[in-house]
Amino acid sequence: LVGLSSVAQVILGRGEFGQYFSINLGFGIGVTLGIHAAGGISGAHLNAAITLTHCLLGSLPWKKLPFYVLGQFLGSFLAAATVFGIYYEALYDYTKGNFTVTGPNATAGIFSTYPAPYMSLTRGFFVEFIATTMLFLGILVIHDEKNNAALKGTQALLTGILVLGIGLSMGMNTGYSMNPSRDLPPRIFTAIAGWGLDVFRAGPYWWWIPLVASPLGCLFGVLIHKLFIDLHNQPVLDSEKEKGQPGMEVS
């Protein structure tokens, strides 16, 4: 909701109410709030690609996958509908009632990601793959208790900063979806709300890239973390664990 609203404000405000940095900051803040809201309940599964990866790794039961993904998709769909309601008049003023996916007054990009006109599908796939690799690798590093984990209570903020950093460095070409749950439900909403099936044809047929590149990027992030970090983590000795405990005087 916060992320999509920030996009709407920048586009519909014609640059007078924010710039590209505003969008990245909006998504970073949204992710931070989402983790704080759901972290203690579900581990804050906000991304279907990450949830699927946890199931493949055996750290999450498969029986939970459909419920988590359903929650993600429903939340994302309702967020798109809410943003549509908030900016309904602004959308009509901006487009004169002609909702388009491409062109000078295109507004479908408020809700879902679309590649830049110069991007090929192959190159766009690679960009989304690398962006999602960095996302999950960063999350693994932030929570790696055996290495140099973030201080307790700061994980949500650092994950939001991670999303902000990826957007600032890799967002220009494809919009850095990195998340099927963030991209597909709003796309379905726009198809229903007046943009039509062009939301699936544009790109051309870009819609499937975030669904496939994101899970593969997560798995590659796991591989990098395992090979270059986890296998080299030093075991924590019992004596080191006890260093901070009060000593006992003996005669």
UniProtKB/TrEMBL annotation:
Entry GO CC: basolateral plasma membrane
Principal subcellular localization: membrane
Origin superkingdom: Eukaryota
Membrane-topology descriptor: Multi-pass membrane protein
Catalyses which reaction(s): glycerol(in) = glycerol(out); H2O(in) = H2O(out)
Molecular function per GO: glycerol channel activity; urea transmembrane transporter activity; water channel activity
Family annotation (Pfam families): MIP (PF00230)
Keywords, ordered alphabetically: Membrane, Transmembrane, Transmembrane helix, Transport
Compartments where found: Membrane
PANTHER family recorded: AQUAPORIN OR AQUAGLYCEROPORIN RELATED, AQUAPORIN-7
Family affiliation: Belongs to the MIP/aquaporin (TC 1.A.8) family.
Name under which the protein is recorded: AQP7 protein
Organism field: Crypturellus undulatus
Lineage: Eukaryota, Metazoa, Chordata, Craniata, Vertebrata
Gene name as annotated: Aqp7
